[in-house]
Structure formats: C-alpha cells, structure tokens
Batch of 3 targets.
Target 1
Amino acid sequence: QKSHSVIEKNELPSSGNKHDFFSLAPYRWPNPEIANGLPYIGHDGVVNPEIYRISDKKYFDQMVDNVNLLSVAYYMTHNESYALKAGDLIRTWFLNDDTRMNPNLNYGEVNRGIDKINPAGMAGRNITGILEAVNLIKPSASWTKGDQQQIEAWFNKYLDWLLYSAAGKKEAEKINNHRTYYNLQVSSIALFLNKTDIAKKIIKETSDFLIPKTIMPDGRQPQELKRTKSLYYSVFNLIGLFRLAIVAENIGTNLWDYEANDNVGLKKALDYLIPYIKNEKVWNYPQIVPLQKKVLIELLVLASSHYKDKTYIDLCNMLLLK
C-alpha cells in the first residue's frame, strides 16, 4: 500500500504550507441564510461530508491503523518486512523532508469563516498509537537510531505545541472529552520522551480535577450527556480515561481504581453504562445515530484487561459473536 502524506491534499490551510495538517470541523455546515455560507454553523453530531474532500485526516488515521497493525505483526512474528513497512509509513508522514507533517495542529478541525484560534487537538487524538508502534519496532534493524532520534525530535516539538501554543492551551481548558484526549496525548508523549515529571503532573491533574469534574456520583458524565450522540460520547470519553489509566500504570499510579469524593471513579462510570449496553435499560438522552459495535468492544476490552469482571468479559464476547 502507498505511503500517504500531508502534501497530497488539494486544498491548503490559510498558512499556505502543504506540510501543515489541515482538516475541517466535522459538525460545522454552511449557513443557509448567508449567500457564501460563512461563517459555518454547528449541527452537533451530523457530519458534513465536505470534510472528506481534504485528505489529511483520512490518510492520517489510515496511517496510524496500518502502523499499529504492522508493528504488532512484527512483535509477534519478528518478520522484518512488517517493521520495514511500518517504518516506511512513519518516515513518510513524520520524518522525510519532502513529505513530513509539521509538528502542530494549528489547522485541525477548522471552522470555515471564523478567524480565531481553534482548539484542534482532537484531530490528533490517535497519534499516541505511533508511540506504541515505535516501541514495538525499535528492536528491528529496519528502525535505526537516526529514525528514533528524529521521531523523538518531532514529538518534542509537538509536545511543546500541545503545552504552549494558544490552540493547545484552549484544549487544556476544556472539561469534557477534549480535555481527556488532550491529557492522553500530553502524558503519553511525555512518557515516550522520558519527561516523567510532565506525565506525572498530567495524571495527577486527571485524578484530582478531571475525573471528579466529569463523572457524577452515579456514574453519569454530564458534559457528554449534553451531546446529540450522548451515549457515544459517554463511551468515547471513558475509553480515553481508560487509556489514561494505562499511561498512569507506567508511573506507578492506579487510575483504574482511584475514587474521588462520593466514590466517583472510572468503574462507576462504566457500571452506569453497562445496563444500557446490555439493553436492560432504555437510554433517555439524545443518540441520533446507532452506536457502532466496535466502540463498545473497545471499551469492554480495555475494561476487561484490568477489572477481570466476568460481566464485562461475557458482554464483550457476546458483542464479538454478534
């Protein structure tokens, strides 16, 4: 399969630089009451197909998926051809001068017609998969010390963008799934770069602030219940928190079983959702499209990896067999 890159898009961001990642906000549509449709207006949960005309997001997600698959295949088989192709995909997207992506998301999830700083970090939420893949192919002869140094340099710059850019700081102010996936990116990258002080700070902020602010004593996630796809976003946010718990394990912190005031914690949020996933209760919040099975499976696989609860394992197996 061809190694795609950010330079293939047929529309450039306002910077005019083809190496800048560019994508449109998925739930923003032309305003029908204005001749040119600008500025775009929001229709939460309804994807504007215009986003697919710009290839960066599609190619980025494909690249991460393919790199993950190849790196696991290499780890399991020690077949160098898998590591070779994974390295080729990574070098094309991040490292090669002619095709590399600049280490920022200044033009991710752009809302046409609005000239302001956009909290764009969600466009890169899958980027942590590259860190895991690099660690898996690192022993391969196909991944050199030079490759490792370059990818670390790229992620150092991207981490700086997350921490210090106006767009990154906007994501850090959110109190919903944006903040969860921002924290996941920052902590994962910091750990990858051996900047454990930053990772520890983010994990502590997650336990002390984010979890008690985003999960209610009964397990509801009120910020996600506001959405038109409220069940999806409740699951999606919890997946991010579970992934943060995996990062936390690497610095000796147990977020899985952490409980804030009123016993608020990740398991409480999971157990709130289980009866709805099992169709034992009717979901009374908005959910304008059916929830994809693969999202539920991802949630339950992560849950089962830690909690070893037969309820989660059996439910996951049932969904897999459907």
Target 2
Amino acid sequence: MEFLHQMTGNAVELLKEMIAIPSISFGEKGVADFLYSHLCERAERLNEAIGKKGKLIVERVANNLIVYRDDFSPMKKTLMLNSHIDTVEPSAAYTFDAFSPFEQDGKVYGLGSNDDGGSVVSQINAFFYLNGERIGREAADPEDLNVNLMLVLTAEEERSGKDGMSRFVEEFQLQPDCAIIGEPTGMEAAIAERGLLVIDGRAEGISGHAARNEGVNALYIALDDIARLREYKFEKKSPVMGDVKMTVTQLNCGTAHNVVPCEATFVVDIRPTEQYSNPEIMELLQNEVKSTLVARNLKNRSSATPQDGILMDTVKKLGIATQISATTSDWMKFPREAVKMGPGVSARSHKADEFICIDEISAAIEGYINFIKNI
C-alpha cells in the first residue's frame, strides 16, 4: 500500500534523527525537545487540515510527551500507545559511532534503533494516521474507533526512574484505561512479564576469637537462612508464568580468618508473577528467616494481560501469537490492562551495533493500525 510505504519512509527518517541525539536514560531532554517540536508541528498541520473536528493536544510532563484529542468520548475506554525515548549507554564493542545512524541492507543501525526507537516511530505514525494524517495528500477524517486514543512517550524507562511512567501515572489528569506498551517483541503480543524484587539480607551475630569458639557466627545464620530460601516454595502458581523464581546471588561477610563474623549480608534476586505483590513476598520470606530482609524497590511488580479484557480479546480475534516476556518495561508501572507489542527483537537490545529492519517498522505501523481498528 502506498500510504504504508510513505509512512515507513517518514518513520525511518524520524528514527535516524532520534538516534543522532544522545538520549541516555536520565539525559533525554535533547530528544524530548526534538520530539515535542515534531509532534506539535504534525498536530498543528493536522488540526488545520481537519478543521472543525476535535483538535489534537500535545502536552509535556518533564521529558514525557503526551498527545490526545480534545473530544474524547466518555462512553469509550481510552487506549494508550506507549514507548520509551531513552537508551542505555552504548557498548564499548560498537564498530561504528552509535550516534551516527545509517541504512544498510534494509536495516537502520544505531543506538536505540531496536530498543525502543522502532516502537516510538511506529506508534507515532500509526497514531497520526488514525487521526486523519495522510502523508503527501489531503487529510482524512479521523477513524471512528471503539476507543479513545492517546500517545504517551516516556523517559527514564531503562533505569526505572521516578520521572518517567511513574510521574505520568501520578500527575497527568487524563489517565488511560489500557495500553499497548511498545517494546521489541517481533509484534507478537507479550501477555505477561515477570516483575523484579531485589532483597538485601543482613544476619547479625556477635564477634569473637575463632580459636576460643566465642561469639555468635553471623555467617552460619546467613547460611541457614539461605538454605531455607533455597528450599522455599511459593504456593500460588501463575497460569501463564508458572512459579515465582528466587535465587540467592551474593554473599559477603568476615574481616579476618580468626574473627567470628558479627555480620553477614546476602542478596536475593526474585522474579515474581502476578499471583503475588512484592510486599506479600517480603512478608512471607521474612517469616521464614532470622536475617533482616530489606527490599531495594517494591514498585517493580509483575504484569499479566487480563484474559477477559478488550486487549486479549483483540489478540485472539486477530490470531496474534503470544509470548511471556523475559524483560521488564514501563508496563510494571502502569496499573491497568496492557499488552506489550512492538517491532524488533529483544535479543538485539543493549548490544553493540544495534539495528532494526525497515520491514519490521512497516509491519509494526500496519499492525498497530489493524489492532486498534479491531478493538
């Protein structure tokens, strides 16, 4: 289709402009400024072309960008298209300048191209198309959808910062009912992702001379607790993710070979399912051990798409393949119905010489449009 070819070309050029602006997590202002101007210009052109129809509004909360129509129907649910605009630091193994994008063999190379630039530009173009934008020709009336549609581009996703999705959810007055979280899934629908709970354990004893068998050995306390955690089984099993995964990954203690340690610390990595909240897990485990357990962050919850919701219904209706995501995303900070779906492949993320295929962007634009029309 000609319109899809034009939108893909537009998306690729926008992606290359984004890549050229360093946007390491917590340093997204440059790319946020650029995208804000870009979105405002497109919204203004479309508003003039559409005329009396509802106007597109572009707003900004810190480095998060929001676009929506001012004629939302209170009778419809509101769907958010969301992707993140930040990247990780470039790997030292890059064989080219990570901020100098280029096309080669049907691919766009550069930092953030796959994670998450491909989703960003695909969602932008799908959003404007559904609101009547026709590149290179006269605008059309906005699509008559069964949902209100908003676009939210968030910052600080890679470092789970407080001024990204969390700030949007806490501060922005207009909140969506459901969301498509754009992440590289090959446009399969990730219907669940595990959360992340990291716990620091601290065992306390009494120091003494090892030769006289004095004191209370904190290392033994920690080892006993680690053994309990290793054998612990969570009762509730997720129908889509299975069991909660828990692994002790670090142990530190001792000052000298002849001193009974008075303190031992260890770290527990837990990947929860939707069956347990992080505070629930903390309470269960603290009751099992003598050591003091402290969570580094209780907000990184697990997520699962409701089986009876409008998004899962659409996934089934369109026959979209599903998967369980191995990675976390802004989904864990969005407390309502969602599915994770976007162009690219997760295995390319955070690696040197990152790229995304142009055909993947094209398929994503078309896929997003078709999905939203079929809700």
Target 3
Amino acid sequence: MAERRQRIFISYRRDDARGASGRVWDWLRIGFGRERVFRDVASIGAGKWRQKIDQAMAASAVCVAVIGRRWADANNLPRLNDPQDMVRHELESALARGDRDELTVIPLLVEDAQLAGLAPEQLPDSLRPLLQDWNVLVLTESGWDDD
C-alpha cells in the first residue's frame, strides 16, 4: 500500500519571495497544521539539508512554487538553468511526481510578479511544464484573504 502523503512543500527563492513565502507558510500552517507544511528555513532541522529537502518533498502531496518578480530575472534565470541549483532541483522533483499524479504543483505568483516577459524557451526543458501545464494562481496584496 502506498504511503499517504499529507504535507505541503513550499518552494521559493530566498532573494526573490522570502517574505511572501513566509506569509503563505503562516496561512497554510493555520489551515492545515504546523507539522504538515514544509518551508526550509523553519522546517529543515539538523542534518544534511539536501536530504531533508528530498525527504520533505517525498512526503508531500502538494508543492507550492512561490514566484516573485525576481524569480527569473537577470540574476536568477541563470541559476534556474544550472542543474545544481536547489530551486531547480525542488521543482524538477515536484514536476516529475506531478507527471505521475503523485503530487499537485501550484505555481503561485506573488508581489505583482508577471510571467508575460518570460518565454518558456528561457527555462530548461525540465521546468517548462511549471508554466505551460499547471494552472498558475495569483496572490495579491489587496486580495490576500480572498485569493
């Protein structure tokens, strides 16, 4: 019998949407319980951090990919194209599991982020489904309670 996954994994880039991801984390903890929401800064604990992240992703049913204005800017787009980048690794893992219907991926635009200027070809092939196949949700400052 397959293990029941009940956690929510929050993927974000610290120099992009640290504050918004923290606020999402707070709201999800209120709604689902502290032990069910993983955000690296607060949830990782002691041990090998990459292993802890992989374990948290494996135990998750949902990955919320928090995307701010700087997620794919001139500084961070090259990082997304680096196979060793941790955010890329998290998202590749989530998308692979999503393809197997083991996980739901929720790309979440925050802080007025816009994807109109980001051509899918700018992302590595492995990350393109994030913006092409999954419904992108928008969380606005003025509509935080309703969004």
